[in-house]
Amino acid sequence: MKSDDVIATYDREGPGWAKTRDRRLTERPWIDRAVAVAPHPLGRRRVLDLGCGAGRPLAEYLLDRGCMVTGVDASRPMIELFARIAPRAVALHADMRTLRLSQEFDLILAWDSFFHLSPDDQRAMFAVFAAHAASGAVLLMTTGPQAGEAIGRIGEADLYHASLDPQEYRSLFEAHGFEELGFWPEEPACGGRTIWMARTRP
């Protein structure tokens, strides 16, 4: 199992998994914090949801909060689901690693998606984050709690995960113009997720 297998795995297993995805929105406190801090120069916050999956519950919630959401996913079946579930959003079939939208966003999400990238791809993603971040934009992402690789499950298939050391993430934030706003390792109130929140420096 390698990071290169993730997209094909979601193509096969993602639609079935999406039907069983926990919709209780345990993520809500962190989403609400990020929305509260994110700038809104156009009156509505522009959200870039990287690895958006089927759009439920996160994109739906953000749309209901009045955000303008652009969802990006490399799995065609998942982005097609997203387009049906969140028709008010923009749905883009694209790989986050090579994204070049020539647009800026006030909030960038890489929630339950970023950790499917290889360590080197994660390092390279910080330039992508910075290229799409407006002044003062918030980045909200989940990782593993420490450096290493792990194999999880989705449906009937293995699924690759990886993480860098927390200090390396901090160095990458610094190198790409972000300041750390919060770090919640293995947060029990959010299903054990390790959560980062950062903001671009004005």
Automatic annotation (TrEMBL):
Residues 47-132 form the Methyltransferase domain. One of its GO terms (biological process) is methylation. GO terms for molecular function: methyltransferase activity. InterPro entries: Methyltransf_25, SAM-dependent_MTases_sf. Coiled coil: none annotated. Keywords: Methyltransferase, Transferase. PANTHER family: TRANS-ACONITATE 2-METHYLTRANSFERASE, TRANS-ACONITATE 2-METHYLTRANSFERASE-RELATED. Gene3D superfamilies: Vaccinia Virus protein VP39. It comes from Rubellimicrobium rubrum. This is Class I SAM-dependent methyltransferase. It comes from the Bacteria.
